[in-house]
């Protein structure tokens, strides 16, 4: 559903026709949930490059600026609009139990 919503395109760099992952906007490691609203289509490289960087830091980083230079303006606007949803996303956090 996330890939379909994002038109099978990386929302960070705009590439298509490549393997995609879903990136947690509010990081999974911090309790971010796996809901459609908290997931964004990302190519593997951009997901790796973001790593554990908070979304606000990522979206304002020089690295994101370089990667997103070819994104359509409407996609850039959608990515920025996510900043407004962060308080709601963070209010839905859960505690993950990790086992080894």
Number of helical segments with 4 or more residues = 5
What is the makeup of the main sheet?
2 strands, antiparallel
Tell the overall outline.
Answer: globular
The rounded Rg comes to 13 Å
Query: What is the helix/strand order?
Result: HEEHHHH
Tell me the span between the first and last alpha carbons.
30 Å
- Spatially, the strands of the biggest sheet line up as 1-2
By DSSP, the count of extended strands is: 2
Query: Ranges with pLDDT <50 over ≥5 residues?
Result: none
Give the overall pLDDT as a whole number.
95
Structural class by SSE content: mainly alpha
Helix content: 40-55%
Tell me the β content: 5-15%
Would you give an account of this structure?
- This protein is mainly alpha-helical.
- Helices cover 41% and strands 10% of the residues.
- Strands 1-2 form a two-stranded antiparallel sheet.
- It is globular and about 35 Å long.
- The mean pLDDT is 95.
């Amino acid at each position: 559903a996330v890939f379909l919503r994002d038109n099978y395109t990386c929302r960070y760099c705009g590439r298509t026709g490549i393997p995609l992952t879903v990136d947690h906007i509010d990081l999974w490691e911090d309790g971010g949930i796996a809901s459609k609203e908290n997931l964004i289509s990302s190519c593997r490289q951009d997901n790796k490059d973001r790593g554990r960087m908070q979304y606000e830091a990522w979206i304002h980083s020089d690295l994101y600026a370089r990667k997103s230079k070819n994104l359509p303006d409407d996609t850039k606007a959608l990515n920025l609009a996510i900043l407004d949803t962060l308080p709601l996303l963070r209010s839905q956090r859960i505690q993950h139990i990790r086992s080894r």
